[in-house]
From TrEMBL:
Record-stated family: Belongs to the CAPAB/TerDEXZ family.
Superkingdom of this protein's organism: Bacteria
The protein's name: Tellurium resistance protein TerD
Residue stretches making up the TerD domain: 3-179
Organism: Arthrobacter alpinus
Pfam short name (any one): TerD
InterPro entries per UniProt: Stress/Tellurium_Resist, TerD
């Protein structure tokens, strides 16, 4: 298992021949509050070679548990949130899959990532053998309301993972604008 820093890449299929199924787990702890609370919502966006979502059918989250092609599925297990990716079933026109979480503004006011601790993303095999992990830095995030944790992306014929930790002060709306999602 490799622990990554922001911006680092890890070869998944290149270093694990025959790997065609991964589970991407996202987790965090939130400091309880009587006021605004950070209720994080995980989200996956399937993007084309230009970095844009193919359509809103290529999103996976609590209201849409499976992508249009059924290659990406939202599941609930050991981590707070998990997304199952059948790499061999991801259509060829998908170049990357972005994994993010945003603060739900409807849950107890507009919270931020300031109350989030121990945020991480991990990529594991179907039998839960951890391949890579990225522990996000959650400092200086007082106004951050969405965070891209990482991405799976194609590199030639292989799949790789990139640790990102990119925060947005504009929440899901900012992510939607950058990736061409209709809200």
């Amino acid at each position: 298992m490799a622990t990554l820093v922001a911006g680092a890449n890890a070869a998944l299929t290149g270093e694990n021949p025959g790997l065609d199924h991964v589970v991407v787990g996202m987790g965090w702890d939130a400091i309880p509050s009587r006021g605004p609370q950070a209720e994080l919502v995980p989200f996956a966006v399937m993007c084309d070679s230009s970095g844009q979502a193919l359509s809103n059918d290529h999103l996976v989250y609590f209201n849409q548990l499976v992508s249009a092609d059924a290659s990406v599925t939202f599941i609930d297990d050991d981590d707070q949130e998990q997304i199952d990716v059948e790499l061999s079933q991801v259509p060829a026109n998908i170049s990357k899959i972005i994994f993010l979480a945003y603060v739900d503004p409807e849950f107890r006011g507009q919270g931020t990532f300031a109350s989030v601790r121990s945020a991480h993303i991990r990529v594991a095999t179907a039998d839960n053998r951890e391949l890579v992990r990225f522990d996000l830095s959650v400092t200086n995030v007082d106004s951050v309301t969405a965070m891209i944790f990482g991405e799976l992306y194609r590199h030639r014929d292989d799949w790789k993972f990139r640790a990102l930790g990119q925060g947005y002060t504009t929440g899901l709306a900012g992510v939607a604008k950058d990736y061409g999602i209709s809200l």
